[in-house]
Each structure stands twice: as structure tokens, then as C-alpha cells.
Amino acid sequence: MIRINEELLEFMNGAALSLQGRFVAERRFAPRAVVLEQGVRVEFVHIVKSGIAKCYLMEENGAEFIQEFFGAGEIFGEIEMFHDEESFGAVEALTDLVVYRLSRSDFERLLTENQKFNRLILKGLAAKVKYKAFRHSFHQLNPIETNLLRLKGQFPDFLKVISKPDVANYLGVTERSLNRSLKSLKERKLIE
Amino acid sequence: MIRINEELLEFMNGAALSLQGRFVAERRFAPRAVVLEQGVRVEFVHIVKSGIAKCYLMEENGAEFIQEFFGAGEIFGEIEMFHDEESFGAVEALTDLVVYRLSRSDFERLLTENQKFNRLILKGLAAKVKYKAFRHSFHQLNPIETNLLRLKGQFPDFLKVISKPDVANYLGVTERSLNRSLKSLKERKLIE
DNA sequence: CGGGAAAAAGGACATTTGTCCGAAGCATCG
DNA sequence: CGATGCTTCGGACAAATGTCCTTTTTCCCG
User: Fold this and answer.
1) CA of A183 to C1' of D16 (A)
2) Which of A33, B8, B89, B149 could be B57's S-S partner, Cβ–Cβ 3.0 to 4.6 Å?
């Protein structure tokens, strides 16, 4: 649920002050701050140094669907670099957030000149695809309660870290339905 | 719905007979043949030369959820290369299928030695992530009928190419529900 | 052409989830 | 302390989807 990428974090931490002779900028965001808007040209790739952010997609009708929660080492904005497109989702800080920020050209250069970085990006993308494949499948084939139990299994304290509306948007259900399922699970002592 | 990757197809077609001095094997599969099993060590990366295949994930309860339909230029097996894992899904030919096949070591070598190939793989992975993000979101937030209309918009003849059980598994619904929705859409002259 | 097996479609009812809205809890401020 | 507004929770009903099983259609082969 809250994803991390230790390898990339380690790489960035180690290389942060001088990557190929350049300086990697660090930015801070307060909770609720928008790091990346939906539908704008993406100028920077961000890598989470610490904190948690949510990545979500807004539909025309205003519904938001949360794609992932980014924890340490997770990267975003890279997808758009490869097709030179506008951001297809938004990213918003949930906690105090510190990110490394790479310009488009620095990212490009690193990708071609640093073999290790290149491989980390490939691995990161592959992990995202795999994560999404499992998530969508499980999600689709199981009722809300089962999904909640799975989340609890992966991340026991998720209800303390993620707000209820966010959990609902992550599961793609209404808050009403989420409440109903939570209540039922509690009555059966399966959570809390 | 049926995805293609023209750039990669073009690259493979052009380079097929001698990629860095090596020979790229070509394989053929009849409809229903299994190209890649779920849960086995992945030894080869495949790239579709022609035909259509389905990529699906089998849950413990036997339900299968179709991730994508691979058309020309689509690659599979690459995800598993980066983390050295077992295949997390299966791939099965739907039509006569011709694929290029790269061994693990050839894939690795190409990735590090051929800048263009490297970039094509990156782009391909990014496209997969983006595709999955939109699909899951739309899927989750809309009823079956809306999803069917969307498929029809993207691929008007999908019902002639993809079998009903496959469409149902792609949408993650039962055949009963699919029938119901199709009937309703037909009565309202929205499809067919 | 006819019989029978297999595949596809659909009826009836159960379950899950959504919608709408009112009730209950909780903070703020005079 | 009590009024006010905000947020959260949950009841009642509607809609969507699943389950189970019967009916209908298709197709094959004699």
C-alpha cells in the first residue's frame, strides 16, 4: 500500500550532493501541499527522501482514484518524461515531505550516462507495473472487506496513517461502503 | 484494449536478423497455446511480431483476470528480468502468434549496450504503467456498461475478436453480468 | 433430417455497493 | 453553558452485480 524503493533511496542519498558533478535539489512540502498537478507539463522528476505522498487520478466527474502512496525512494514524474506528456495524475503530500528533484535534462543525462541509475529506473518501473497488476486483479475480484483485510495484512496501521476518505479513494468505493465494511469487520473482531 | 508498440516492433523487425551480431529467434504459436506459464522462472523475453495474445493473472480461487491483450510490438517477460522472479502472470495466444524471443543474457546485453533498445524498453514500461493507471481508475469508478462503451470507442470490433469469456475476465465480471449489460446496450441501440 | 451433447443466454433471487439524507458527536465562540 | 456549524456515522432504500440453475441455441454426427 505505502510503497518504498530502498535501492533508489540509497542511490539518491549517496549521490545527492554531487550527481555527475551536478547538485540535486531538495524540496520540502507540508501536508496537503500539491507537489505535482494533473494535466501540466512535467518539468521535474521527484524522488521521495522522506514522508508519504498520495498519487491520484481525477476523473471528469470529480471522483479521485488513488494510484499509490509513495514512501521513501519512490519516484514520480518519470513516466511523463518518456513520452513528453502532461502529468496524468496529481501528487499531494500527506505528511511532511522531502523530495529530491531532478530537472528533465539532468534526468535524461543520468539515464544515459549512469548505468546504475538507468537500471534502478528500469527496476522501479517494472515494480510499478507488477504492483498495479496485482492490485487491480485482487481489487476487482474481491469484496471491500477482503481488500481491507489484505491492506491490514500488508500494513497493520494503515488506518492510523491514511485518512478514511483516502482509504475509500484508494479502494475506489464510497465512504459509506467503507464505513459499513469497517464496522462489520470490527464487530467480528477481524480488525482493531 | 489490444495494445501495440510500433516503435519496438519496428526496431525488432529491423534488427531481427542480427542484433549485435546475434540471431533473434522467432517462434510461432497456435491459438490457445501457452507462451508463458504463471509461476515459472522466466528465461526469455518475448516481443510480439504478429497476432494477439492475452496476459492474465490467475488467483488462488481459479478466477482469471486479464491484464492486457498484446498486439504487435508488445513485450512480455521483461518485468521478471529486473527482479529475477517467477512469472506473475500467464500469456496465451488468441490468434496465430509470431514472437521474437530473446534469452535473458541477450536481453541484458542489449539493454546495456544498445542505447536505443534501452530507451524503447523504458518507454514501453512507462506506457504500461500509464495504461494500467487509467484502466484501473476508469474500471473501478464506472459500471460495466460504461466500460463496454469505452471499449467500443477504443476498439469498435472487440466483440468479434475477443471471446465473451475473455471480455468478462478482462472486465473482472461474471459472464452473466456481461450478458446483462450487453443486452441492455443492444436494446438501447448503443452497440451492435 | 433428427438426436444429443455442449455452449450460450437468461430468469429468479441473494449479496454487495451506492445514494440520499438525517442523527450523533465534537469543536468553537459568545 | 448552550447555540452554531462542521464533520462523521449510519439507516433506509435503490441500483448493480453475483450465484445458481433452467431454458434456448448451436453444432456435430449418424
Assistant:
1) 22
2) B89
